[in-house]
Structures are given as structure tokens and as C-alpha cells.
């Protein structure tokens, strides 16, 4: 009797192990994405950045006359009750903790694309500015390279477009100011190709042009990464 019970237990164990093995093999393709590390680069649109740059118009800067931040909207726009700043923080920060409203990002961390440093974010009067949302194509630069000819609605769209925005180190963003590719580049050299590709993507999307020095700087950076693609 005891021998029969042991045989039954062994048989059940074999069946259980076989079943688990079958489930793992069957479900493995769907488990791989969960186990894979998060993507570190922006999804590509497929278009080569150098090709897109080649067809952008080249002109001198238009006068800055009439430029005001309000030409691109009165601060951040809102979508679904959340302002653009918090939407981008939530996109770019890892382990983003939200307030009870489900919108305001209270804390998180990220690898800053401009400096390469790991930065912690904590909402507060003295700490929030450590992480800023950068307009990759500075709005002043956009104004002087074609945005004056856009409608107000188009300029508001540009200023709040996720393609145009990145969460970055506050001091690095302040250092950049209104600089274009000819006057400022991220100190994190491995990110420069992606940075230039994003600027090109924004300029293409909103029919902006590049200045001769700007084009030369972009071409120089992209010569080191000829297959760099535009971000989606």
C-alpha cells in the first residue's frame, strides 16, 4: 500500500513538472519583453537624420523682433487635466511617484541625457528646478528660423510637442539658454547624435530652417554617426 502511494506521488510530481515546462515554453515569447531591460533610446522614425537635414532650407536668422514666450502659449498646455511639464516628467523619469491627483510627479530619477549623470527629482520649492523641461529647439531659435510664420495654434503645439521636449539637468539647460547646435551641445558626447537628430526632426515637422553655422555643426556631429535615425 505504501509503495503504491509513493508511486502515485512520483507520478503526480512528474506530471506537474512536465506541465510547468510546457507552460514556460509556450509562454516564453510573451515573457521576454517583461524580462528585457527598458529601452534606453527613443523609438526611430526610420528616416536617416542626414537625409532629413539635407532637405531642410538654409537661411540666415530672422530678426528676434516681437519674440516673447507668450507667442508659444501662456505657459504649459494641459492634456487630460495634466500640464505638459508633468507629462514629460512622467515619461522620462524612472519610478515616477505621482500625487493623489494622478498627475503631479512628486519624485523619480533619471539618467540626464545632457550630462550623463544620474539625477534624483523631488518636488519642492527649492528642489524642483534641479530637473527642467528643455525645448530641444530653443523657442527663440524657432522664432528666428520660421516660427514667426506659423499660426498661434501651431506655435503652441510646437512648444508642447513631446518630440520637442526632454527632462534634463536644470543647470545644463540654463547654460544652453537659446543656443542652437552651433553655439551649444550637450557635454554628454554619446548623446549628441540623438540630440541633433531630434532638433532636425522638430525643424522638419514645423517647417523651420537652419542657419549656415547651425547646418555645419549638425553635419559635423552626424559625420560621426551617419546612420543616426530621426526619433519617432
Describe the model.
The chain is of the alpha+beta class and 232 residues long. 41% of the residues lie in helices and 17% in strands. The protein has a 3-stranded antiparallel β-sheet, with helices on one face. Strand 2 (78-79) and strand 3 form a beta hairpin. It is globular, with a radius of gyration of 25 Å. It starts with a helix and ends with a strand. Residues 14-40 have low confidence and may be disordered.
Secondary-structure map:
Layout: H1 2-35, E1 44-48, H2 49-54, E2 78-79, E3 82-83, H3 84-92, E4 94-98, E5 105-111, E6 118-122, E7 131-135, H4 139-144, H5 152-159, E8 165-169, H6 170-176, H7 192-205, H8 212-222, E9 229-231
Antiparallel strand pairs: 1-9, 2-3, 4-5, 5-6, 7-8
Structural class: alpha+beta
Give the overall shape, derived from the CA principal axes: globular
Number of distinct beta strands: 9
Strand order of the largest sheet: 4-5-6
N-to-C CA distance: 69 Å
Q: Can you write the helix and strand succession as a string?
A: HEHEEHEEEEHHEHHHE
Which keywords apply here?
17% strand, 232 residues, 41% helix, alpha+beta, globular, 3-stranded antiparallel β-sheet, two-stranded antiparallel sheet
In short:
The protein has helices at residues 2-35, 49-54, 84-92, 139-144, 152-159, 170-176, 192-205, 212-222; strands at 44-48, 78-79, 82-83, 94-98, 105-111, 118-122, 131-135, 165-169, 229-231. By secondary structure, it is of the alpha+beta class. A hairpin with a 2-residue loop joins strand 2 and strand 3 (82-83).
Amino acid at each position: 500500500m505504501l509503495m503504491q502511494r509513493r508511486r502515485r506521488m512520483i507520478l503526480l510530481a512528474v506530471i506537474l513538472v512536465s506541465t510547468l515546462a510546457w507552460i514556460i515554453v509556450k509562454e516564453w515569447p510573451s515573457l521576454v519583453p517583461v524580462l528585457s531591460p527598458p529601452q534606453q533610446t527613443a523609438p526611430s522614425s526610420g528616416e536617416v537624420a542626414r537625409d532629413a537635414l539635407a532637405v531642410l532650407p538654409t537661411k540666415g536668422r530672422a530678426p528676434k523682433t516681437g519674440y516673447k514666450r507668450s507667442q508659444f502659449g501662456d505657459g504649459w498646455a494641459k492634456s487630460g487635466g495634466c500640464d505638459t511639464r508633468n507629462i514629460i516628467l512622467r515619461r522620462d523619469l524612472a519610478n515616477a511617484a505621482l500625487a493623489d491627483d494622478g498627475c503631479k510627479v512628486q519624485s523619480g530619477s533619471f539618467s540626464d541625457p545632457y550630462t550623463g549623470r544620474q539625477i534624483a527629482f523631488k518636488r519642492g520649492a527649492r528642489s524642483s528646478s534641479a530637473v527642467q523641461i528643455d525645448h530641444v529647439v530653443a523657442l527663440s531659435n524657432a522664432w528666428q528660423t520660421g516660427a514667426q510664420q506659423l499660426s498661434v495654434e501651431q506655435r503652441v503645439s510646437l512648444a508642447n510637442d513631446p518630440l520637442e521636449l526632454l527632462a534634463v539637468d536644470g543647470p545644463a539647460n540654463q547654460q544652453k539658454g537659446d543656443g542652437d547646435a552651433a553655439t551649444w551641445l550637450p557635454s554628454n558626447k554619446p548623446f549628441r547624435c540623438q540630440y541633433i537628430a531630434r532638433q532636425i526632426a522638430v525643424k522638419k515637422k514645423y517647417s523651420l530652417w537652419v542657419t549656415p553655422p547651425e547646418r555645419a555643426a549638425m553635419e559635423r556631429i552626424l559625420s560621426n554617426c551617419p546612420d543616426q535615425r530621426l526619433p519617432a
